[in-house]
Write a structure and sequence with these properties.
By secondary structure, the chain is of the alpha+beta class. It has six helices and 15 strands. About 35% of the residues are buried. The structure holds thymidine-5'-phosphate. Thymidine-5'-phosphate (TMP) binds near residues 121, 129, 177, 197 and 199.
């Protein structure tokens, strides 16, 4: 499938049209950003790793009955996907206290949650992706009541499946951000699933293996992305 004109450029990916109006190409860049674009940089080969890791995880989820936008991986940096009308709600699932939850609740990072916490954020860079709830989603027409239910059910299911998936690879899934979109009256999991949008800690050492290494200048950013890649793609 040949890539045609660029439709959209985000912080980490570019979306291209194809000859098929129902299919687009996701091109994964090495560009990294954090704190809503305030911190910018490059993580060498991140695009290749995130493409391979996302493809492996989407395939795994499809095998488990989760509907995703994946059609197929085209090459190192390109994934052919179903064209989605993105629902502007980010779904975050948390298994362990970290990041903004630690800040909001005044808790140290690392406390295991009794049950997963599900949160919604309004996907709007100008506003800094504020946290919202289902009343906001309904009132402002971001998704229907039926779609909110799908986001909730699929979010919890995907988190449960991936917690086990990562555990088998010696990684603790601390939290994860998911995005969904509409395709022919169906809601599909979209975007990517990679160390950019999850917190992944080594199961035994607790070492961070995700974008927090870039956010907080922890060093060994490339090395840890590579380690996640090997743990996931060499085992699968
Ligand atoms: P947070 O603790 O900063 O709210 O982030 C929770 C998880 O969601 C973490 O794995 C990072 C991811 N995330 C994104 O990838 N993009 C976002 O815009 C937000 C708010 C979170």
């Amino acid at each position: 499938m040949k890539r045609l004109e660029q439709l959209y450029e985000g912080k980490a990916k570019i979306i291209y049209a194809t000859e098929d109006p129902d299919r687009v190409i996701q091109y994964f860049k090495d560009d990294a950003s954090a704190f809503n674009g305030v911190k910018k940089g490059t993580i060498v080969d991140k695009g290749v790793i995130n493409n391979h890791v996302s493809t492996t995880i989407f395939k795994y989820l499809e095998e488990k009955g989760v509907r995703t936008h994946l059609v197929k991986e085209l090459n190192d940096r390109e994934m052919l996907v179903k064209r989605l009308e993105i629902i502007p709600v980010e779904v975050v699932l948390r298994n362990v206290v970290a990041g903004s939850l630690a800040k909001r609740m005044g808790l140290p990072e690392g406390e295991k949650l009794k049950a997963p916490i599900l949160e919604f954020y309004y996907k709007d860079d100008d506003l800094g992706d504020p946290m919202i709830n289902e009343y906001h989603i309904k009132e402002f027409g971001l998704a229907t009541a039926e779609e909110i239910e799908i986001l909730r059910q699929q979010g919890l299911l995907i988190n449960e499946l991936l917690f086990e998936f990562f555990k088998q690879r010696n990684i603790r899934l601390v939290d994860i951000k998911l995005e969904f979109g509409r395709h022919k009256r169906e809601v599909l999991l979209g975007d990517e699933i990679s160390p950019d949008g999850c917190r992944l800690w080594h199961w035994e050492t607790g070492e961070k293996m995700d974008k927090d290494r870039f956010r907080f200048n922890l060093g060994q950013v490339e090395e840890k992305y590579q380690e996640v890649y090997h743990l996931i793609c060499n085992k699968a």
